[in-house]
Amino acid sequence: MRKFLLMCCILLGITAVSRAQGGGQRMTPEDRAKNLQTQLKLTDDQTAKVLAIYKTQATKRDSIRTASNGDRDAMRAAMMPLMQASNAQIKALLTPEQAAAYQKMQEENRARMQQGGGGGGGGN
């Protein structure tokens, strides 16, 4: 149950950040890494590693999207482990303080998604 909730948090968090920052458009791996660098005060080395993780994730996500042939349930099921793995890799790069802030960001994004699908894009 705990793993399932974590996967849901990851999926919702990334979706919410992408929608809030991109106006409904998908953010590039570079944009996502830059966003984390700003919010978590990442070093240049951390940012480069996060960017590599996001680029790998984007390639795999595109493959999943193509393979699912429009089946949203199959796509969602295949993406959850991918997002969980990417999230774990990113957390491993962070300091304890950054990891706590990252976790808080994910929880806030999940809560925002549960309250109405992203809250309309707000102040960012």
TrEMBL record:
Protein name according to UniProt: Spy/CpxP family protein refolding chaperone
Organism: Mucilaginibacter gotjawali
